[in-house]
Amino acid sequence: MDYTAPTALLKDKIILVTGAGDGIGRVAALTYASYGATVVLLGRTTTKLESVYDEIIASGAPEPGIAPMDLATATPDEIQKLAEVMEEQYGRLDGLLHNAAILGDRVPVEHYDINTWMKVMQVNLHAVFLLTRIFMPLLRQSSSASLLFSSSGVGATPRAYWGAYSVSKYALEGLAKLLMEELENASHIRVNILNPGGTRTSMRATAYPNEDPATLKAPEDLMPLYLYLMGDDSEHIKGETLQG
Ligand code: NAP
C-alpha cells in the first residue's frame, strides 16, 4: 500500500496487539509504538514479549504493557482481568489487532488430529471472539476505535488440506462481518479484515518449507497498510477486506 503515515498518527492511542512477540504482530507492535501508540503486547512467550518491550523502551516510544497469555487455554476470567487492569490503567482501548494464530496440520479432514483441530479453533477463532466480546466496553470508551481481524487467502475461500486453519479463518471472517453489521451505527468503532498475504515469518516457513523466504515480502513491508487501518486516516473505512 502506498501510504505515508504522519509521525504522530497514533499519538495517545491505546492499542492491543495479539501475537506481539513474533512475526507480523511483533513488527506491528514496534511500528505502532514508533508512531506514538501505547501498545499492550499480548502473546504466549514472555521472553519474546520482553524483548519487544525492551526494543520499544530503547526507541524512546511510550512504555508498552505486557500481557503474557496463552490463547489456547486463556479463560474468560483471565481475559476479563486483563480488561479490568487496562480499564484502570488507560480507561479505553483505541485499537485491537487480532493477529495471533496457529497453523495446525495440513492433512485431509478425515485424518485431522482432533486435539489439534480444537486448539486451532480455540486460538484462531474462539479467543478472538472472547477478546472482542470482553474488550467491547473499552472500545466503546474510545472516540475512534479500529478493530482489525487478520485473515488469509484460505479463509476467504477454504482450501483443501488446510483443515482447521482454513475453517477458523473462514469463520473469523464471518465473525468480523457480523460485527461490521452490528456496529454499523456505532460511528466511532470500525471493523475491517486484513489479509497480509504471503509474508516472511515462521508460520509461512512452516506452511511452505520449500519456498525461498527471500522471494516474500517482510512484515515491515505491510506496515503502511497496518498503520493506515489502525490510525484515524482510515476513519471512513469500515467493513472492508484489505490485502497486504
Ligand atoms: P507467526 O510468525 O507464527 O506469529 C504468530 C504469533 O502469534 C506469535 O507471536 C505467536 O507467539 C503468537 N501465538 C500463537 N499462538 C498463540 C497463543 N496460543 N497465545 C498467544 N499468542 C499466540 O505468524 P505470522 O505469520 O506473523 O501471522 C500473523 C497473522 O497473519 C496470523 O493471523 C496469520 O494467520 C496471518 N497470516 C499470515 C500470513 C503469512 O504469510 N505469514 C499469510 C496470511 C495470513 P509465539 O511466538 O510465542 O509462538
The main sheet comes to:
7 strands, parallel
Cross-sheet strand order for the largest sheet: 3-2-1-4-5-6-7
What would CATH call the class?
Alpha Beta
Relative helix content: 40-55%
Count of discrete alpha- or pi-helical segments spanning 4 or more residues? 8
Features:
244 residues; alpha/beta; Rossmann fold; 8 helices; 7 strands; 14% strand; binds NADP nicotinamide-adenine-dinucleotide phosphate
Overview of the molecule:
This protein is an alpha/beta fold. The chain has a single domain (14-243), classed as NAD(P)-binding Rossmann-like Domain (Rossmann fold, 3-Layer(aba) Sandwich), CATH 3.40.50. 43% of the residues lie in helices and 14% in strands. The chain has 8 helices and 7 strands; from the N terminus they run E-H-E-H-E-H-E-H-E-H-H-E-H-H-E. It has helices at 23-34, 46-59, 76-90, 114-140, 153-156, 163-182, 202-207, 223-230; strands at residues 14-18, 38-43, 65-68, 95-98, 145-150, 189-195, 241-243. A 7-stranded parallel beta sheet has the order 3-2-1-4-5-6-7, sandwiched between helices. Strand 2 (38-43), helix 2 and strand 3 form a beta-alpha-beta unit. Helix 1 (23-34) packs parallel to helix 2 (46-59) and helix 4 runs parallel beside helix 6 (163-182). The longest helix is centred in the middle third of the chain and has 27 residues, at 114-140. It is globular and about 50 Å long. The termini are close together. The model has no long low-confidence stretch (mean pLDDT 97). The chain binds NADP nicotinamide-adenine-dinucleotide phosphate. The site of NADP nicotinamide-adenine-dinucleotide phosphate has 29 residues, from helix 1 and helix 7.
